[in-house]
């Protein structure tokens, strides 16, 4: 990887308006230029200029639907870079204990591209580790154990699905930028979030990356993961 490529990508991410645009899309959503302009607090013309640079730099992709164009991150690798950058440097105590409700909600549970992040995701990961359903396996990887495969099968998640790929690729460790602990990512993390959404355990926010746990979700998390609402805090 050449120095020029690193510096070019770093320059694209470092610009404040572009960084806001990228972070806004970290949940894997696709948004119009107008919506991204409002999120970044700039004019449509300014946003259009920045979006063009992000497209040229390979950080975004665009899809046309009729007269509208929708932008999204170019892939999970871009989200992973952004989340990794966010873990550099300390999370200040002031941020951790902020009374700001949106910030609290983001720390509790949010989308990290195609999987869950935040306190609830850490709790899910720790439950699976404690119960022996996953184990640490090499650098930044988890392996799903035989009991884990059986347990996931009972939940309706088939680890033999070809979409999971090779066993060594089933579950990746993603460093949570607010909690400074690893949560489950990769195909398993994506399937868990899809399942939680399908079962009505969690719901997405229409205005932010945060997600909320429903009453049905708390029942399911307690039954299948041993996670109680009181132990996790507000959600």
From TrEMBL:
It holds the Pfam family HTH_20. PANTHER family: TRANSCRIPTIONAL REGULATOR-RELATED (PTHR39168), TRANSCRIPTIONAL REGULATORY PROTEIN (PTHR39168:SF1). The lineage of its organism: Bacteria, Pseudomonadati, Pseudomonadota, Betaproteobacteria, Burkholderiales. SMART domains: HTH_ARSR (SM00418). This is Helix-turn-helix transcriptional regulator. PROSITE patterns: HTH_ARSR_2. It comes from Paraburkholderia agricolaris. Gene3D superfamilies: Winged helix-like DNA-binding domain superfamily/Winged helix DNA-binding domain. InterPro entries: ArsR-like_HTH, HTH_ArsR_DNA-bd_dom, HTH_Metal-responsive_Reg, WH-like_DNA-bd_sf, WH_DNA-bd_sf. Residues 1-93 form the HTH arsR-type domain.
């Amino acid at each position: 990887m050449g120095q020029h490529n690193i510096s070019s990508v770093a320059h694209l991410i470092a610009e404040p308006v572009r960084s806001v645009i990228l972070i806004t899309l970290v949940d894997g959503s696709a948004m119009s230029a107008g919506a991204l302009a409002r999120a970044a607090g700039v004019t449509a013309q300014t946003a259009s200029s920045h979006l063009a640079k992000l497209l040229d730099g390979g950080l975004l992709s665009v899809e046309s639907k009729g007269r509208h164009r929708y932008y999204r991150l170019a892939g999970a690798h871009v989200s992973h870079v952004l989340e990794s950058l966010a873990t550099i440097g300390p999370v200040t105590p002031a941020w951790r204990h902020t009374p700001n409700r949106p910030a609290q909600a983001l720390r509790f549970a949010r989308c990290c591209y195609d999987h869950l992040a935040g306190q609830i995701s850490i709790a899910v990961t720790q439950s699976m580790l404690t119960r022996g359903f996953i184990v640490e396996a090499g650098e930044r990887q988890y392996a799903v154990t035989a009991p884990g495969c059986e347990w996931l099968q009972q939940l309706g998640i088939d680890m033999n699905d070809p979409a999971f790929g090779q066993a060594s690729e089933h579950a990746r460790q993603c460093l949570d930028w607010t909690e400074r602990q690893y949560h489950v990512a990769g195909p398993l993390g994506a399937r868990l979030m899809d399942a939680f959404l399908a079962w009505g355990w969690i719901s997405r926010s229409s205005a932010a990356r945060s997600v909320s746990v429903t009453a049905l979700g708390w029942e399911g998390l307690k039954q299948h993961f041993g996670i109680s609402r009181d132990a996790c805090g507000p959600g």
